[in-house]
Design a protein that fits this description.
single chain; alpha+beta; Four Helix Bundle (Hemerythrin (Met), subunit A); 2 domains; 4-stranded mixed sheet; 8% strand
């Protein structure tokens, strides 16, 4: 789904672009919105003096409900495609160009690098689940909080797995669960905690199943190969 900005957000980003052009001058390359409140600014070079000049502008951006932009040179962007494949793939797939011409021409995220990033994400999710369970002990409240905290990272992981397996289709967390062959009913129940935390206490009895689910997710990504 393409990114759509509200008229208010668009005007705010336009004001940010004016600020960036004033600071960077001819070195300004582009400003790209990645969400309704955050974006990436590209400049041919980024100097300490630029950062000092941008600092006082953050208060006006905050009043416009915008985060300070990520700052990159085109070379940094291209050289780090293999380092941040998940983040850059999301940016390439969903953005709005506010001003300038971003360095996206021919930018491609390698699928094996994407698989590796998904593997790291899956392993991290599993490790944090295990650690959180040990720290919570048998306290139902702490176990419930662990489940609630895990919902958003699980959704992001499954959406990335969906993209990895089918890069032509929409990011679909439940579809990612189906592709990985894990329990979709349990997956849906955990994802639902993002919007309604009341179901967490009942799910604490299934924490063992959840850990096994996370193990299977990691194993799926670890052994996945493109057809």
């Amino acid at each position: 789904m393409p990114l759509t900005l509200t008229p208010t957000a668009r005007k705010a980003f336009d004001r940010m672009a004016v600020d960036l052009r004033r600071v960077f001058g001819e070195r300004f390359v582009a400003l790209v919105a990645s969400t309704g409140h955050s974006g990436v600014a590209f400049a041919s070079s980024i100097l300490p003096g630029d950062l000092e000049a941008l600092g006082p502008l953050t208060s006006s951006w905050e009043r416009d409900a915008l985060d300070p932009p990520l700052l990159l040179t085109p070379r940094e962007f291209r050289r780090s495609l293999d380092t941040f494949p998940l983040e850059y793939r999301a940016l390439l797939a969903r953005h709005v160009v506010i001003d300038g011409t971003p360095p996206f021409d021919d930018a491609v995220v390698d699928r094996q690098q994407l698989r590796h990033a998904c593997e790291v994400q899956a392993k991290s999710h599993l490790i944090h689940l295990r650690q959180g369970w040990v720290q919570a002990g048998s306290d139902k409240g702490s176990l419930s909080e662990l489940l609630v905290r895990s919902a958003a990272p699980l959704r992001a992981l499954l959406a990335n797995i969906s993209d990895l397996v089918d890069d032509a289709g929409p990011s679909d967390p439940v579809g990612g669960a189906e592709q990985a062959g894990i329990d979709t009913d349990l997956t849906r129940a955990i994802l639902a905690l993002e919007d309604d935390e009341s179901g967490a206490p009942a799910l604490t009895d299934r924490l063992g199943d959840y850990v096994v689910l996370a193990e299977r997710l990691w194993a799926f990504v670890d052994t996945w190969t493109s057809r």
